[in-house]
Structures are given as structure tokens and as C-alpha cells.
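Can't paste images in this forum, so I'm doing it all in text. The chain is below; anyone willing to post the predicted C-alpha cells underneath?
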Amino acid sequence: MLDKQQVKLHFSRNAQRYDNYAVVQKKMATKLAKLLEANNKNPQAILEIGCGTGNYTQILAEKYPQAQILATDISAEMLAITKHKLAAYPNISYQLADGEKIELGGEFDLITSNAVFQWFTDYKATFKRYLELLELNGQLLYATFGERTFNELHNSFALAYKKLGLENTGVHGPKFVTTTQLQEFSNNSAWQTVFREEDQLQYFSTAKEFLQAVKKVGANNASTSEKLLVSRRLLLQMLNEYQTTYQKANQVRATYHIIYGLHQKRQ
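Text version of the structure:
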């Protein structure tokens, strides 16, 4: 079960160094901007869910200078960085909020989010709320990580369990949503929905470096002390399996499966 307080804590702790490691997230933001262009929309009221350190926020502010943008985030530390970084943009306002529990009046013609939906726990209620916040023909556009993300990590853990003769608990690393699930969660006759998917590969010198990079963008999972004692042996075996199985030309790869969702309110 995802602990939202731990998610908030991890991102707050790593806010200052997030930009140094958010390589894939920045590419996703650029792709989202292109998808906006492709749909020929000129939004006037934008709600951004999970602005983080403001990389996607800045793209929106520059692309739509006439629009009023409300940037929200669950982390006060992330919001503080974005406010400082984007102080020169008068069309942005800010609010500390959980993206699943937005309490706002008024309507938006665009709700958008980059690399945040994977931290949601109640997609159905969230999609319903966003539908209420959008005006007619308004759009919900987001990028999130899909189920193939970190498949090398999951496979390496499975190999490690087998080598050590341990029961595979299957709890290591985040479990990401599928396109089918997103379609089911957002199932509503008022939505017109389109999905796109792609895999992006990122390369690291070692498997350990990969895990450190994940941690430094705040995306690591919290473990109890009891699990930590058991997992040290397992972790070493997993790192060995990862290095052995996925090393090529002195680098190891990590897969990021990205789902782009576009939902338009049509009634």
C-alpha cells in the first residue's frame, strides 16, 4: 500500500537535488508540450498537478503567457523552489495540495501533470474530480510511468530470490499502473480518451548508481527496520544479478515505460 506521507517526505527531502537527476522527467515534460501543440489548444486557465521544481511549469508559462496557471504540489519544499525559480512569471500562482484531493472553485480548460499520477491511490475518484473541474471541451493531459518501468529491477529481484532460495514477496519497487487500468479508472461517457505509450532507456555505470539516482528524485520506497535486516543480503544478490544480466559496454540500463493520457470533456 502506497504511503502518501512517505511520498511527501521523500520528495521534500530530495527537492534541492531533484533537477540534477530528473532526466527522464524533463524529457516527458517536453513531450507533453508537443502533445499540447498537436491538439491546437490555447488554454486560458491551467491547473498543474504536482509541479515539482517547476520544469514543466516553466514550459507552460512560456508557451501560454496569456493563461492563468495554478501550480500545485504536495511538498512545500518543491513549491518553494518553483516559486523562486519562476518568480519572473506573473501568470503563475501556487497552492500546497495533494493532487488527488484538490479543493477548488471555478473551472479550468486544461488540467495537466507530469510524472505524478503514479503516486495516486484512488484514480476513480480523482478522475471524477478533474471532470468536475474542467469546463466543456476542457482537457486533462498527463504523463505517468507504466507497468514496464524498472522491469530490469523487478527481474533482478526475482532472480535474487531464486538464487537465495527465498520466497518472493514481490513488494520491491513501486508497482505502476497499466493503460488498461487507466482506461477503466477513467471510464465515463463524458470523457473522450486517447493514450500513447513509449519506452525510454536510461543508462548508468552500475546498478547501485541507478538505485541512488532513483532515490535522489524522491521515488524510493520506505522500508520497515524488520524488512531492512532481511533485505541487505537480498539487495546485494539483486545488485549482482542486475549487473550480470543487464550490463553492456560497461553500462546497465533502466527502462522507463511512459503513458501519455489525453482526456477531453465532451459533455
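Confidence is low (pLDDT under 50) at residues 222-230. Strands lie at 45-49, 68-73, 92-96, 108-114, 134-145, 191-204, 247-248, 251-265.
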